[in-house]
Amino acid sequence: MKLCGAIDYQIIGADILQQDKNCLIVANHPSLIDYVLIASQLKRCDCLVKSAIWANPFMKHIVKAAGYIPNEAPDDLLAMCEERFDDGNVLLIFPEGTRTTPGVKSKLQRGAAQIAVRTERDLRVVHITVTPSFLTKEKKWYQVPKTKPFFKVEVKDKVEIEPFIKQTTSPTIAARRLQQHLAETIFPENS
């Protein structure tokens, strides 16, 4: 899309992202191509995919062929994540569970924090902005802005899981605290 002049983008910290392995990558999700922008920078990327995509007749074969992990059956999910981490892969998750709606306060689902705590894996935070709005949840794919969309992908600091686990003996409480921290980190404007 960049080569044909449809969009432009900048990835700040791509070299850091390319060195990550055995961790979760968590990002906000403003557009349909966020996955492409992030995954294109990663050597071994798996993705946690919501069940609606696995049920979509156009998408299910793609995610299955890619070997991605369905977001169902928690016990199987954790085992699959652990196996991928052991292979040196990163796991890309959009913890909102859907695309971000501009102007609406975002709420994270529990999955990313639960996986991080229960597999004891660090998380890399990525923040994406797109100006003007393009391929977002509230607009149709054919609603093209008058100016070329610019995507800014910022690789943020890694969130170490150890302090969250050491604060409590309860994985549930550790995951809640981590989820709150992620919400403040991914969406500082909501804090």
Shape: globular
SSE order: EHEHEHHEHEHEEHH
Q: Ranges with pLDDT <50 over ≥5 residues?
A: none
Strand content: 15-25%
- Sheet having the most strands: 7 strands, mixed
Q: How many strand elements?
A: 7
- Structural class category: alpha/beta
The number of distinct structural domains comes to 1
Percentage of residues in helical conformation: 25-40%
Number of helices: 8
Identify the strand order in the major beta sheet: 1-7-6-2-5-3-4
Indicate the radius of gyration in whole angstroms: 16 Å
The average pLDDT score comes to 85
Task: Give the distance, in angstroms, between the N- and C-terminal Cα atoms.
Answer: 34 Å
Domain Phospholipid/glycerol acyltransferase: 23-133
GO biological process, one term: phosphatidic acid biosynthetic process
Pathway: Lipid metabolism
GO molecular function: 1-acylglycerol-3-phosphate O-acyltransferase activity
